[in-house]
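Thread: Modeling a multi-component assembly for a lab meeting

Hi all, long-time lurker, first post. My supervisor asked me to bring a structural picture of a complex we are working on to next week's group meeting, and I have zero experience with this. I have the sequence lines for every component (1144 residues in total). Could someone generate the structure of the whole assembly? Inputs are pasted exactly as I received them:
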Amino acid sequence: MTIPPWQQLAETKRQAILSAIPEKWRLKDPIPSPAEQRDVTGAYIEQFLTPREIEITEADAIGILAHTTTGKWTAVEVTEAFCHRAALAHQLVNCLHEIFFTTALETARRLDAHFAKHSRPLGPLHGLPISLKDQFHIPGVETTMGYVGWINTFQGTPNDGRNRTSQSQLVTDLLASGAILYVKTSVPMTLMCGETINNIITYTSNPKNRLLSSGGSSGGEGALIALRGSPAGFGTDIGGSIRIPAVFNGLFGIRPSSGRIPYQGAANSMDGQSTILSVVGPLARSAGDLMVLFKAVLRRAPWLTDPLVLEIPWRGDVERETRELVRGMPGRLAFGIMWDDGAVVPHPPIQRAMKIVEETVRELGHTLVKWTPPSHQTAAKLAMRVYDLDGGADIRHHLALSGETPAAQVILEAEGTPQKTALEVAALNVEKREYQKLYMDYWNSTAQLTGTGRSVEAVIYPCAPHAAVIPTQFATVGYTSVINVLDYTSVAIPVTHVDKNIDLVRGQGRPLSDVDLKVHYDYDPNVYDGAPAGVQLFGRRLQEEKILVLAEYLAGKVKEATANKIVVGPEL
Amino acid sequence: MTIPPWQQLAETKRQAILSAIPEKWRLKDPIPSPAEQRDVTGAYIEQFLTPREIEITEADAIGILAHTTTGKWTAVEVTEAFCHRAALAHQLVNCLHEIFFTTALETARRLDAHFAKHSRPLGPLHGLPISLKDQFHIPGVETTMGYVGWINTFQGTPNDGRNRTSQSQLVTDLLASGAILYVKTSVPMTLMCGETINNIITYTSNPKNRLLSSGGSSGGEGALIALRGSPAGFGTDIGGSIRIPAVFNGLFGIRPSSGRIPYQGAANSMDGQSTILSVVGPLARSAGDLMVLFKAVLRRAPWLTDPLVLEIPWRGDVERETRELVRGMPGRLAFGIMWDDGAVVPHPPIQRAMKIVEETVRELGHTLVKWTPPSHQTAAKLAMRVYDLDGGADIRHHLALSGETPAAQVILEAEGTPQKTALEVAALNVEKREYQKLYMDYWNSTAQLTGTGRSVEAVIYPCAPHAAVIPTQFATVGYTSVINVLDYTSVAIPVTHVDKNIDLVRGQGRPLSDVDLKVHYDYDPNVYDGAPAGVQLFGRRLQEEKILVLAEYLAGKVKEATANKIVVGPEL
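Re: Modeling a multi-component assembly
Sure thing. I ran the full set together rather than chain by chain. Output:
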């Protein structure tokens, strides 16, 4: 048997994805170029939908569940509407790896039958379509993770009985909770990239501005949810891969600490590298939606089925205490704020997003503490060394399976880079722990500065130095990877959009680094115009309940403030 | 400066330890040989104590705290009594590395002053002397961890400002809780040994039978507490190092899952090896005492000061629910029972200890499930590979600092054994996770067998194939290391003592392995006579609250049963 060249394999797979879209949902006319039609969200995509489909797909997860768990909407009609919209989304921005609408509709019919029979939902996610990043295995569905060499294999191994039969634990838990799975979303080959590009679906563009990136590595999730082709989905994050696509697409996304959401039975890069664990977390349109998904998964007691999950159920007491704190008198909270990572000054729109949040917190009467922790650069450099522990061996192996050319954006160690030794791995583990210790001591020390009797609750910080980025210009994961080194909880929050009339290019004094120089040079307000811009709000380790409540609170107040036209201009 | 030969360094240190014992507490006459006087506990050691000292030191931790936290006993008199008894213990069995009675008495005086002033204790451990394994740093005190090359250094580094100034987090937490630190206990060089031997204190013998070992690596703790030279102490466990000395000395000891008790700032072997983390846990005379210590440490919120500690406070609800379960109707619980590890059949006294527990459980009407999990040998072999990840480099380095000769018992990889690579470390992490997953699936499956509606609560299993062992004959950590691979909670429980008239040598059919053959051959009822024999009760990950309550319950019932002279003989 001759193995077809990788280009042919990729092309066949690309066509197979498109062919999985029912004829009736295929776009008949060529779509306008990105230059002609940057924004394909909202009215643009809705031209192809019925009013009923629009009503359903514009609802958020909480809104959908309010209808599906009470029998007001059937699972079938909700599923059909999202299948249709996801199909359109893929044709507009290349965001899907796998489409399995038939299976999804079968699931939906079973759920409707369940409801008809028992007059109650199957579980807390009854009838909610959920998209999954293409790392999760679902029976009947392939997993390529963006590698051409994984097509028709199980994670690169041909003739493996687990191909299209394996089921990741998260899939089990979601299905048992009543969710409907219907698509798997695009990722960059290797997963180690802040944009989403591979030789199968090519490039996943940003739906708000197709001249830009949807982010990575959970870029397909970001793009699909931004287009309302999914109400919510799950991605993974080892250096920012949930938070980057979240802010690039105007969404919320949580990178929980490791040990809360099951990773068991999912594909991964460099599996077994345990110095910095990749984690699973949801992306959605609101912090409330993230909470619904988080709670539903924890209700399944994943610590009984995933050895890496901790027995920490959803802590309703922490949620309640935090809600009381934010409902209480102004000035009862203290937030840290940190404007840059010491290496790259963020672009004007990100600075403006930070200022909007800062002003909102100030207006609410809360304390702002200038955050001066142990160097984030130390952590960013440590993370880069962790990502390269094996000298790129795992990635090279999977690229070599097909011989495909890696995308330019994928960071690859030079051929022949040596692996680290067990002693070097151990030394890195110690270095990480010592950094974590310094950081927690610093955090504890802020109790002296807040006036609340407690240390800072959470820290406001950019997710990246730029908004949804111009392709090939993703600069650094340093803003996000520090959180992975610390294993802290961080929630990405959408704040605003780039406005070429406000977010002007301006001088910033002496560059902090060569990367700073390049990032500054790369900023082009005309191209970035319309791109979502957000920040992250991070808390200490395993603080998901608290940080989600704070993110919901702050994002709500930011929305009120911006709706009231408190415009923060470049003069601030 | 010429560096003295290691023998001289070791001798000087050995004398310095003895010199730290006040003249008045030194034994004037030579003690009888082990053959003449095997057992130096109880009446033997008490001949050197006053009735008041005996009254104090015979009390357990709960009993002492009942007096010291209410002002009935002063911290000073309690401290003096334990200092005296610990000094005697060391002279009898070589169980101390560091003696700092003067500092201890200063602490005690401050505590008494605090109580006099405020009429309440400083914290939950007010006035309780606690011994620590010689891995924890205390200002003013050295840490050698059994290495001659660490004398006058900080963990082997000379002229390091941290020598005698560093303070481990557990030390901070214990002192802040009102505990009194006064001694550090002996360990085998490298810590990787089931006996306690090093070139400084030589050999730590078993106080119940000085022909035998006190176990390891927390052997000094085991011996000291057995002699009531300490009411309770903290050890560490990466392969059995808490549980082995606990059962060898007729004590309770808990190996908690990783992430509960702070290890921050303590010395260790192969620091940074994270595939199997060493953990800290208490040893004491009862499960109740273990609970008191565990709760006191968690009250300090160690997750705010140790990056590896999880934010899981003591779960009083789990403790209460478990107490209700054991108080309820008989037959409401199900225990797994597993008689051997598939490689080595335990000696007759360990089989008898198992039978005593089995009979007790049966008499109580609970269900016993024959435990047939994924092979424990797989885990034991995996653990051995983890301990050797660096090819012995760390251990060799610390031995080479002084050029000392390693003890025969210390397992050392052959010189020049290569380190593992980052990819091999990652593969081992995956292998471990997959074993954990198989094991948890098996555990879940037992819900079909128990009749309780739940899976098995805990499993009864030997801690070692022998009772407190004949020196150089410690055979295998396979019985304990499986728990470290699983990261499960396990509590060592004392059950009985070897009785040469009951625990006769007997044939056992075809040997399971070469080690089995040797262990069988090594059994000598006459030498073992009087040695403590116990078992472990293990539960799933992070089940400390539950397993401690179950251990307290079962051990209490075993004690009742044996007091009622239900003798289990070899005929059973």
